[in-house]
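Researcher: Excuse me, tokens okay?
***
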Amino acid sequence: MLTRRHFIRTTTALFSASMTASPLLASTWPTGAEKAAWDAQVTPPGYDPATSNPWGLHPRFLPQRVQANYGLVPGDIHVDAVARYLYHIEEGGTAMRYGVAIGRGDLYEPGTYTIKRKVEWPHWTPTRNMIEREPEVYAQYEDGMEPGPENALGSRALYLYVGDRDTYLRIHGTPFPRSIGSRASSGCVRMVMAHIITLYPQVAMGSTAYLYDADGTVTARS
């Protein structure tokens, strides 16, 4: 059984000095100029991941480089549902740690997933379950939401699969950065938009994402 204790030694935190649904065939996609403008809009001036905090987050949720436990696979992602951290494992025994928000109650689904799609400034459409559960919130978006800083998936999205099945779970940016550290989503893992912009190019297609449960265990999904 894989537990939270196996993947990170949290006693060492070293700051780096430099450091859902979505339509596959949307009718329009943002241009490079639009994406660059939105990136600039959601990234603080003079952005330093380790110190910039216009969102008022607890400092522990700012990106940090930490020491990883021996034997973890570089490139993999581990999400600690208890501490609300996402770890991206690096070569050389370190990991970048980011604060996240996770799903409310039983909407959070621990398990082992594969990242099989990545999108910059994605479209978003709520699932039918989301609309049925909270029509007052999601029904207005049943035909989808265009990309942009107000989009529910934010600046970047990593799409989680089990085999060839899209789970509709995402690791994505959020227009609600003050939710970081809480249980706020409909199942996805939320990140500050500027933070996932930094993470996104470091994550390879086919990487594994482990979402740990609140009791510290994770099981493979089939």
About this structure: Residues 13 and 191 are 19 Å apart (CA to CA).
